[in-house]
Write a structure and sequence with these properties.
Length: 97
């Protein structure tokens, strides 16, 4: 399923969107996961945002609005500074305790 996900003020076209509830430290927390493409022109903005690891997350199509941190993150490429390069990112965000 594809969804629009907004992390802080950055809108992402999320592919393979999934959501679930996870129990951590005795609390039920909401977790979302998705894949997205990052171009060389967006690489700096996306990675700078992800390094903050403190997010307001909105999924308008699902009426979701939460505060989250990164649960899991990976990318298919480590150097997107090459012109016209595109990387596949996978991101899981979990509601903050």
């Amino acid at each position: 399923m594809n969804q629009k996900v907004i992390i802080n003020d950055l809108a992402i076209n999320a592919m393979n969107y999934q959501e679930e509830t996870v129990t951590e430290e005795g609390k039920d927390l909401f977790k979302i996961g998705f894949d997205f493409k990052v171009t060389s022109s967006d690489y700096h903005d996306v990675t700078t945002l992800l390094y903050k690891n403190d997010f307001t997350v909105k999924v308008p199509g699902r009426n979701i609005n939460l505060y989250a941190t990164i649960y899991n993150y990976s990318t298919s490429i480590t150097n997107l500074y090459e012109e016209d390069a595109v990387g596949d990112f996978k991101l899981e965000l979990m509601e903050k305790v």
